[in-house]
Write a structure and sequence with these properties.
- The complex is a heterodimer of chains A (439) and B (320).
- Chain A has 439 residues and is an alpha+beta fold.
- Chain A has two domains: 16-280 and 290-314, no CATH class; 322-435.
- Helices cover 56% and strands 11% of the residues of chain A.
- Chain A has 14 helices and nine strands.
- In chain A, helix 2 (32-52) packs antiparallel against helix 3, helix 3 packs antiparallel against helix 6 and helix 8 runs parallel beside helix 12.
- Chain A is elongated.
- Chain B has helices spanning 43-51, 94-104, 112-118, 134-146, 164-179, 191-194, 215-221, 234-241, 263-275, 289-298, 307-314; strands at 3-14, 17-28, 32-36, 58-63, 66-67, 79-82, 152-156, 183-188, 200-205, 208-214, 226-231, 248-251, 257-260, 280-287.
- In chain B, the strands form three sheets. A six-stranded mixed β-sheet of chain B has the order 6-7-8-3-9-10, sandwiched between helices.
- In chain B, helix 5 links the parallel strand 7 (152-156) and strand 8.
- The longest helix of chain B is centred in the middle third of the chain and has 16 residues, at 164-179.
- The chains are: A alpha+beta (439), B alpha/beta (320).
- The interface between A and B is large, with 44 and 56 residues.
């Protein structure tokens, strides 16, 4: 019998973070769940695009929802809005929530930790691998939804949130930028999932923890429009891409989102590392769900949510008639130019004047404010081709400042209009989406 | 003599349980050392501490000249082995698992084929570990350890889950490694298993080392082996035994006699019974000398002998 040992070997070079990263990537590639997630990111947008184009109605309550049958570039934006609710946190958790806890589940910590890598190298390597997976999923979803939209619907120009027409290059640039922005909070959710994975030592808790937090945050953000509380929610940075499309564009939400994401990510990783570093690996198997632990987590969550909820409700809203009128004025002005372009008429934007008067129908006296679906704007338009146009728009304003506006066909024309070449397209004045940006 | 492992005043508590209670232990380089003790004696906790998986509350552990506490939270260089049943990624093949382990060691891919052949898993190298039996995982654990070219090999209950042939192979590998100059620390709750393998032994009980020394010295200090005896006339057999002070005999309430004596004394006693016309209906080894020592040191109760051992030894009445 021969035994493969060379006891006289000199110590090898340290394996380091790179080795851990390679090993983790190899493991991720070999596992079923991450593969399934990748396939879903790849094929779900195509299925969505095909399905939505066979329907008689469109998801008009979503940003760009009314454009999904008119421009393929609307598909990635609609999916970005959906994924920002809990889709990206869930995708991030598929690997990050399991990457530490799976070693407990499979009792492999003792196998990994008895090699040449330090705990710090293992922690960093695993974290980087989880972040890589999250980034690949975001990129995959962005790319596949864009390609699916272009293949199924086409490459028609899209009317942006500012009311301006986005040609192919501009639309693609905005899609790339928007998904890149979504990557920032997704990486923070990845760190949060790692925290759950390390501290609970339970794969299920690790995977569902971050999406549950995301849903709670989305729920909180729907409760009110307080600027402070909304700013500290990790789901708010998913809306930062709105700022790229409004007119004038703003990067304020982007920077706040970046700061919030970095804060959540860093805090999660610090706590996770402290827990991992101090841990005694004294037994095998993953930690079971304990009702006492679950009870404590639920109580802590309820208290935290209650505090944030009170903060949200008490914080004065920034959504006012002044803000809405400014946004409607700018957006409609651009939309009128777009409509005339579609009709083959060149129009100087500076010659178009829009005068909106907005208030909530439920407010009898005093100032109107806050997110609601009972906003109404009387709009007077003056300019070439549209002289003395008057329209009443019904507007639903969401807590994030985005809104959808609809006007009766008798005033602005039907939903679909004929183009000079005989085609049909959506009448941009019939209904539109836009966003106000928090001050 | 250089020490491969030096443990001083080691203490570790988990909650209310004192797993290690002031343990001192030293293992010479190149030796095969046994850690013996009943379940819960602290053997596995000690190995986990040596591997750096668990931090001690008090005490020092020096492995191949390196203090474990100063090893930057990683297993010390030159240390290989496993604690409890080795585990691997079930969705990967045995070879792929070893490749990943080698990567985490900074190299060693070139040893994979040899290591698999050594543990006789080369024909199953490309099967997923999820379908492996406990014994196969045990052997894969040893293969993974060999990739590190260990100078100190720590094996925790390496024969658990192995069939007798596999257990023999495992212990043979341990001896071959020792012959190559590797220091081996092997834990077991079965004293007789380590008898022909170890140079030295530490008997652990409730986190403490209750006996430490060479296997030779342990044999010398061990009480005589115990046998179960059933005869045609137990009363007269007891009377005859009472004539020889080197022979200890106790009537068991279950209906047999327990005879403790060295081999030569027992042989003479059996002959005497025959001359007295007393038929021996059953004579079997109850505990080897080392097992007797183990039970006297740890205060554990002896369990009934295994069926296969009864079958082997009934006819011979041999004592080791």
């Amino acid at each position: 019998m021969s035994v493969a040992v060379d006891a006289a070997d000199t110590p090898r070079e340290r394996a380091g973070v790179g080795a851990v990263y390679r090993v983790e990537i190899a493991k991720i590639r070999a596992q079923l769940l991450p593969r399934a997630a990748a396939v879903i990111c790849l094929l779900a947008p195509l299925g969505f695009a095909i399905f939505i184009n066979t329907q008689s109605s469109v998801p008009a309550d979503s940003l760009f929802g009314r454009w999904v049958q008119a421009s393929g570039f609307a598909i990635p934006f609609v999916l970005l809005g959906f994924a920002g609710i809990a889709g990206f946190p869930l995708l991030a958790s598929v690997v990050a929530g399991d990457i530490f806890a799976s070693e407990d589940r499979q009792s492999t910590w003792k196998t990994v930790l008895t090699r040449s890598c330090s705990r710090a190298e293992i922690f960093v390597g695993k974290t980087l691998a989880a972040m890589t997976f999250s980034a690949v999923m975001v990129a995959l979803l962005g790319a596949s939804s864009t390609i699916a939209g272009m293949l199924v619907v086409g490459r028609q120009p899209l009317v942006g949130l500012s009311g301006e027409l986005l040609d192919q290059t501009h639309a693609l640039t905005l899609i790339v930028e928007s998904y890149a922005l979504a990557l920032v909070p997704t990486l923070a959710f990845t760190c949060l999932a790692i925290l759950f994975s390390v501290t609970t030592r339970n794969s299920m808790a690790g995977v569902i923890g971050a999406p549950v937090v995301a849903l709670l945050m989305v729920g909180l953000s729907l409760m009110g429009s307080g600027v402070v509380v909304r700013s500290i929610l990790l789901t708010s940075p998913y809306e930062a891409w709105h700022g790229l499309q409004v007119s004038p564009s703003t990067t304020k939400a982007l920077w706040i989102g970046l700061l919030v994401s970095v804060a959540y990510g860093a805090l999660s990783l610090i706590v996770a590392w402290r827990s991992f570093r101090r841990r005694d690996f004294a037994g095998d198997g993953q930690a079971p769900f304990r009702w006492s632990t679950i009870g404590r987590v639920v109580v802590a969550t309820v208290v935290l949510v209650a505090i944030l909820l009170v903060g949200t409700l008490l914080n004065k809203t920034w959504i006012t008639s002044t803000h809405l009128e400014a946004s409607v004025s700018q957006t409609l002005s651009n939309l009128i130019v777009v409509q005339q372009q579609i009709l083959g008429r060149e129009l100087d934007p500076t010659t178009v004047k829009v005068y909106p008067y907005c208030k909530r129908e439920s407010v009898i006296s005093g100032t109107s404010s806050g997110p609601a679906d009972d906003w109404a704007c009387q709009v007077f338009v003056d300019g070439p081709h549209v002289s003395r146009l008057a329209a009443d728009y019904s507007i639903a304003v969401r807590p994030d400042g985005c809104y959808t506006a609809d006007a009766p066909a008798s005033l602005v024309g039907p939903l679909h209009m004929k183009t000079p070449d005989g085609g049909t397209t959506i009448n941009p004045l019939s209904a539109f989406d836009s966003c106000m940006i928090a001050p | 003599m250089t020490l491969a492992l030096d443990v001083r005043d080691l203490q570790k508590t988990f909650g209310d349980v004192r797993a290690i209670d002031g343990l001192d232990l030293s293992v010479d380089a190149g030796a095969v050392h046994g850690l013996v003790g009943p379940n819960g004696a602290g053997k596995t906790t000690l190995l986990r501490i040596v591997f750096g998986l668990v931090a001690p509350d008090v005490g020092t552990v020096t492995v191949l000249g390196t203090d474990v506490a100063e090893a930057a939270e990683r297993s010390a260089d030159g240390v290989g082995g496993f604690v409890e049943e080795p585990r691997f990624y079930p969705y990967l093949t045995a070879r792929r698992n070893l490749e990943l382990m080698a990567d985490l060691d900074g190299g060693g891919d070139e040893r994979i084929d040899d290591a698999l052949a050594t543990v006789r898993l080369d024909d199953r190298a490309d099967r997923k570990v999820g379908g492996f039996s406990s014994g196969m995982r045990q052997r894969l654990g040893l293969a993974a350890s060999l990739l590190r070219s260990p100078r100190l090999l720590l094996l925790d209950e390496p024969t658990v889950g192995l069939d007798p042939s596999g257990a023999r192979d495992m212990l043979a590998i341990v001896q071959t490694l020792a012959a190559d100059g590797v220091t081996v620390v092997v834990s077991s709750h079965n004293m007789s298993e380590l008898e022909g393998v170890c140079d030295g032994v530490t008997v652990m009980h409730e986190g403490r080392g209750v006996w430490h020394g060479s296997m030779e010295r342990l044999r010398e200090e061990s009480p005589a082996p115990a046998h179960r005896l059933e005869t045609s006339d137990d009363a007269r057999a007891s009377e005859i035994a009472g004539r020889d002070r080197r022979l200890e005999i106790v009537a068991d309430p279950a209906g047999w006699l327990t005879v403790s004596a060295d081999r030569g004394v027992l042989d003479a006693y059996v002959v005497a019974l025959g001359k007295a016309g007393i038929a021996i209906r059953r004579l079997e080894l109850l505990m080897t000398a080392l097992e007797s020592m183990f039970f006297s040191l740890t205060g554990e109760r002896a369990e009934p002998p295994a069926v296969d051992r009864e079958r082997d030894e009934l006819s011979t009445g041999s004592a080791r």
